Amino acid sequence: MARLAVLLSIPRALRHLPRVGADLPPDEAVVLDAPAAPLREALAEAGEGDFTVARDLLASTRRGARWERRDRWVAGLAEYALHRPGWLDAWLAEHPDDPDARLVRADLAVRQAWEVRTSARARDVSREQFRAFHTLLRDAVPAIERAVELNPEDPVPWRVALTHARGSQAPREVFDGYLMEVMDRDPGHYGCHASALQYLCAKWYGSHEEMFEFAESAADRAGPGALLNALPVTAVTEYALDHAPGEDGPIPARRVAAAVDRALELSAHYEPGDPVAAGFRNHLALALIRADRLEEALETFRAIGVHARSSPWALLGGDPLEEFLDLRKGVRLQLAGRIPLFSRPAPPPERAGTAAAGGPDAAWRARALAVCSAPLPEVAEAALLTGLDLRMAPAPGARTLVELAAPAASAPRGGVRGALLGEGRLTQAVSTITRAETWPAVVLHRTGDRYGIALLRDGRTVAAHEWDLAAPVPDFAEAAGVAKAFADAHGVADSRPLTALLRAGGGDAARLAEVCAALGLPPLPEGFGERAEVLDGVRGARLVRRRSLLAAIRESLGSGGSREDRGSGEESVSSR
Hints:
Elements: H1 2-16, E1 31-32, H2 37-47, H3 52-63, H4 67-81, H5 86-94, H6 99-117, H7 127-150, H8 156-167, H9 172-185, H10 190-200, H11 208-221, H12 231-240, H13 253-267, H14 278-290, H15 294-304, E2 307-308, H16 310-313, H17 320-337, E3 366-372, H18 376-382, E4 390-395, E5 399-404, H19 415-421, H20 426-434, E6 441-447, E7 450-457, E8 460-467, H21 476-489, H22 496-503, H23 509-518, E9 542-544, H24 549-558, H25 563-567, E10 573-575
Parallel strand pairs: 1-2
Antiparallel strand pairs: 3-5, 3-6, 4-5, 4-9, 6-7, 7-8, 9-10
């Protein structure tokens, strides 16, 4: 009977999926562990070797006693320094007793140890890894002590110390002493409590009961809207690693449900798309899915917007961003499958602050532009089967620029196939356009602070690169291989300048413009990356409206004349 119910839900899911959660950001707009805007600027400058923005940023948190913000920014800078430490070395060389630089250095020292150990369970860590791990932790002790000495009022060095205690197998009295230091400085500090929770969980030195008691006690002390109210739902994440929903365990189901309800109440205190709230909202979404509270899970995904976090999704064993996107789509599919076949899903709630309203998530919308190495009429004909509305413009060198266009109100919806392709996915459209063609296409994109480029040929992605502030400098051989693929596709003999561009730090529209120039591609249209539909108003631009599959086949096969004649027909292409 269960299998029959699943089979019967498939037509409902296919019919209603395009409308259920249609207001969620598209997959390509979702970013993992995206830093806040001030931190992004500091990381970008650090990537160029300039530490002054990071210095000023942390100094402001110290002077204003903004300990929670300081903790997040120190963590982000230390994580970045794992792969690109030059800017921090320069900072310390010039200002060896700067309390902010020393704090980042202490956090980095502990992260370097954990980088060697990895986050795997102890049984999966080699003896050599453990030996190096403990050596690096011993070396980190003076750095932590120095950070404490230089700013005695700061609770953040004690968060670093708590993380160190977990790795160094510190006895309980040491852990308790560190926690008391936190309580003396900032008893409501979420970051310190979250680190302490890890020490107390069952997989380390505590138990499920002790972990829940600690989380609930801290939340009970907190006022409405305080982040400590999120601590119990993070405990639910840890508990769920050992106990499936509905399974008998040491924590009653009512306490798990109470932790989830408390997090839902906390979420209501924050605007949709708030990057700070995204930390606990990601845990909340997973807890709601496990509890089969899917309507609330979908609403939580709306509140998360584009801000996926590694925790808790990395705990599921796969790539955290893929886990986030897969489970988000799974929620949509299950909800769509529960709607009667001939009913209509309820419209999403109208909320200020969402990307649709131009709120906090609006800056993270994906912007993409394709450069096809073929004339416009040929590209227009190849685009008939994409199921999407596209705008095209001729470019020098018999090339064509392509972008997604806002769909016409009267245009056909494209059916299930169009929904599965995904609105707003230019890469999939270009994959369809290039299938069985001999010419290549390049897709340039910007999502938040990430810029990237992909090479497509004959319906598949041949090579791709993305500039990511938080990622290490790409391996030379890897970057050289990607550069050669791009160069060969565009008849460029020397790929070395392109390799240098791919390995350069940061990434912005200017960097993409340099890549285009190196490949002999046309210059980027004005406004690329900042606004949608940059081809609107460009001389010679045309709209190619979506077609149903049958109409596209009829138009493609039934028209007489050459490709150029067929591509300029008014029914398929309209001038702007």
